[in-house]
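Problem statement: downstream parser choked on a complex file, so we are re-checking the raw output for the magnesium ion run. The parser issue turned out to be on our end (a line-ending mismatch), but while we're here, posting the original submission so the record is complete.
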Amino acid sequence: GFLRKKVSILILGLDNSGKTTLVTHFLHPPAAGTAGGEPAPPPVVPTVGFSLDRFNWGNLGITVFDMSGQGRYRDFWEHFYGDADGILWVLDSSDSAHLQRTKPPILIFANKSDVPGCMTPEQCTAALGLDTIRDRNWNMIPSNAITGEGLAKGLEWLAAELS
Ligand code: GTP
Ligand code: MG
């Protein structure tokens, strides 16, 4: 075997954006060859506070802090920044009313990209003003946390940044 590099990823985003659904996918990926028509993933409930999970990805041993996005828990976030090697932001691209200007993220999943009428990654990028960010790398990847579409692509990018 080989030693995995240990990294911590902080998962942020407003409540109901799909953070926990997305993490569940990394912890329990669907069996190979079952993309589409696979059994429904276990139901998720709104996160209370945060939940801590671990999984391996290539040469990385990843610890994820899946934060609650609810307003009353958002004050927690800042206490986790110091230990985070990377930040993963999940945006509900189907809910433009809930979208608000936020701190510069590193990886953004424009989740629920399967919902008809959702914003394109370009529209999300423009809505957040990401083009003006110069002090760090960022990437916007459309995703569907239920089927897993886009998730590997996004995490590959973040993993490369952290390797
Ligand atoms: P908090 O823990 O409250 O911050 O919410 P969360 O960001 O963890 O959201 P959660 O994973 O609990 O998902 C909220 C709802 O969105 C659930 O009903 C999910 O099934 C649904 N959902 C998550 N991802 C997707 C997606 O990609 N597409 C669609 N259509 N629904 C999704
Ligand atoms: Mg959650």
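For whoever reads this later: The mean pLDDT is 87.
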